[in-house]
């Protein structure tokens, strides 16, 4: 039996509206990092489900058990759970890898709207990362520095195989951006030192949504789903209200 860390377990926040949001964490992270955003959205009245991506929430060794297909299923299972509760419209929102998976849900017609936060179409040091994914499949590389958030759970290193899966997922979603036609909001920071800011432009120009907008925030906030939330949470609420 898999022992998921208590801090990393998925959760549902039931709202008073017939609109819901599946809010998905990033690579090596967990639903605990989405809790502030989930709570804010729930306070607006939305039902919110935060899935745990496959391979996450246990130990770094288990990250190898994840895959692009498994990550996508984690998101679509969340959409199904909200629909089963009678939610009529479900928005897919995600941070970093979660944003990529949210875009895939929109590409496949599974979401009624999509919101990405620091989604990584292009990353810094891509060449180095790519080499590691090819030649370091059984090795681990530090991905994050301890952030002192003891109430949250994440991995601080990742293996080459899983990094390769991440790059594969990004490539696959980028090729199909034109399939996205639902309302879309792309949130990014030009000071993000992990994701290149042109990622937002690629998404914005690649999708065919009649309603789409980019929201630029300030600061070096790749983890802006935690630190920079106050800059854009009201805009997300307005976006959902206007498109549901």
Break the fold down into its secondary structure elements and pairings.
Layout: E1 11-13, E2 19-24, H1 35-43, E3 47-50, H2 68-84, E4 89-95, H3 97-107, E5 113-117, H4 126-135, E6 140-142, E7 157-159, H5 160-175, E8 184-189, H6 198-206, E9 212-217, H7 233-242
Parallel strand pairs: 2-3, 2-4, 4-5, 5-8, 8-9
Antiparallel strand pairs: 1-3, 6-7
Helix pairs in contact: 2-3, 3-5, 4-5
Would you give an account of this structure?
With 244 residues, the protein is α/β, with parallel strands linked by helices. Helices cover 34% and strands 18% of the residues. The chain has 7 helices and 9 strands; from the N terminus they run E-E-H-E-H-E-H-E-H-E-E-H-E-H-E-H. The chain has helices at 35-43, 68-84, 97-107, 126-135, 160-175, 198-206, 233-242; strands spanning 11-13, 19-24, 47-50, 89-95, 113-117, 140-142, 157-159, 184-189, 212-217. The strands form 2 sheets. The chain has a 7-stranded mixed beta sheet with strand order 1-3-2-4-5-8-9, with helices on both faces. Helix 3 links the parallel strand 4 and strand 5. The protein is globular, with a radius of gyration of 16 Å. The N and C termini lie far apart (40 Å). 48% of the residues are buried.
| Helix proportion | 25-40%
Strand order of the largest sheet: 1-3-2-4-5-8-9
- Biggest pleated-sheet summary: 7 strands, mixed
**N-to-C CA distance:** 40 Å
Q: Element order, helices and strands?
A: EEHEHEHEHEEHEHEH
Shape: globular
Summed up, the helix count is 7
Briefly summarize what is shown.
The chain is an alpha/beta fold and 244 residues long. The chain is built from seven helices and nine strands.
